[in-house]
Design a protein that fits this description.
Helix content of chain B: under 10%
Largest sheet of chain B: 7 strands, mixed
Distance between the termini of chain A: 41 Å
Radius of gyration of chain B: 13 Å
Structural class of chain A: mainly beta
Strand content of chain B: over 45%
Order of helices and strands of chain B: EEEEEEEEEEE
Strand content of chain A: over 45%
Shape of chain B: globular
Oligomer: heterodimer
Chain lengths: 113, 114
């Protein structure tokens, strides 16, 4: 079965600093991979997705992610974090047989002024 | 175009009570899903419906039932609520023919069972 792991439960960065959130996956074939963001009290919003092709994927709100097959990783990055980026971030991949998603446990981002 | 809507937003139940969480989507999607979100566990699939008239169990179906009322609506029922069902519930929809796994989420229902 597929799995998605987010090793960091909580990350704090200063506003204006760069950000990298880690995601590791286990999947035999080329995976579909997603990053979602959940602002406090809100539902999940898709930031970006990778299906195939260029391994560097651009998303909304200035985020990007790079697929690295050799490291089984799909890390999310942003060059300069804004206070409004404080949220919880989820990496996701397809589940088995149901076209639903399996999610990582999430990384909560705190932004310091 | 409201996307995915869920009602209620908040609910408090006593152990043993029943309730139905409602979900509707206006994007003409075929597939709909119910997830629950618990701290440190991400989202876990409860049930899904690939198309109108079909439903299937997900990872954590025990204690829940679902109804795909029509293409737009997918409800989740707790027949006898338990404290372990305290969680945030999200409904989602997708059009698998267009984009196999991209899902659109509702704002969630925060349920507390005392």
């Amino acid at each position: 079965a597929q799995s998605v792991t987010q090793p960091d439960i909580h990350i704090t960065v200063s506003e204006g600093a760069s950000l990298e959130l880690r995601c590791n996956y286990s999947y035999g074939a080329t995976p579909y991979l997603f990053w979602y963001v959940q602002s406090p009290g809100q539902g999940l919003q898709l930031l970006l997705k990778y299906f195939s092709g260029d391994t560097l994927v651009q998303g909304i709100k200035g985020f990007e992610a790079e697929f690295k097959r050799s490291q089984s990783s799909f890390n999310l990055r942003k060059p300069s974090v804004h206070w409004s980026d404080a949220a919880e971030y989820f990496c996701a991949a397809p589940g088995t047989g149901r076209r639903a998603l399996t999610f990582g446990s999430g990384t909560r981002l705190q932004v310091q002024p | 175009n409201a996307g995915v809507t869920q009602t209620p937003k908040f609910q408090v139940l006593k152990t043993g009570q029943s309730m139905t969480l409602q979900c509707a989507q206006d994007m003409n999607h075929n597939s709909m899903y119910w997830y629950r979100q618990d701290p440190g566990m991400g989202l876990r699939l409860i049930y899904y419906s690939a198309s109108e008239g079909t439903t299937d169990k997900g990872e954590v179906p025990n204690g829940y039932n679902v109804s795909r009322l029509n293409k737009r609506e997918f409800s989740l029922r707790l027949e006898s609520a338990a404290p372990s069902q305290t969680s945030v519930y999200f409904c989602a929809s997708s059009e698998v023919r267009a984009d196999p796994y991209e899902q659109y989420f509702g704002p969630g229902t925060r349920l507390t069972v005392t």
